[in-house]
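Hi W., the fe (ii) ion complex you wanted:
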Amino acid sequence: MSALVEKMNQALGLELRAINMYAHYAAYVKGMYRLQLEPLFQSEATESMVHAATIRNAIVKHGGICGTERDSNPITHTEDYRVMLQSALDTEIKAAEAYGELMEMLDEIEDRELYDSVEQIYLTELRSVEEMRMLLN
Ligand SMILES: [Fe+2]
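Structure:
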């Protein structure tokens, strides 16, 4: 497997994990916070699904095989919304890192089209990082 496909599969695994994590937290978030956090977690799950689809198409385009397993980092079960937000923050930081590294690789091989779509994903991950930080403050 090429290093590029490997990196894209790492990103895909992170998205698959994020889909599970956000869907799980959307189901368990309780109390008054549920009003805001349930829709937030649902939309993060959907966003991760869209990112996963983009990365899958990119792997196919580069002749690779898409992974089907999620990143193995455990998903902490909790009903404490602060623990959920902290896990979300950690998840988004990891995703932003992976996409940053992927952008460097795409810059080297000069795949501008894919670079641009990965940059869009990268920017949404950074926005999520800031959002989770603000919510935890
Ligand atoms: Fe994402």
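The CA atoms of residues 72 and 126 lie 22 Å apart.

W.
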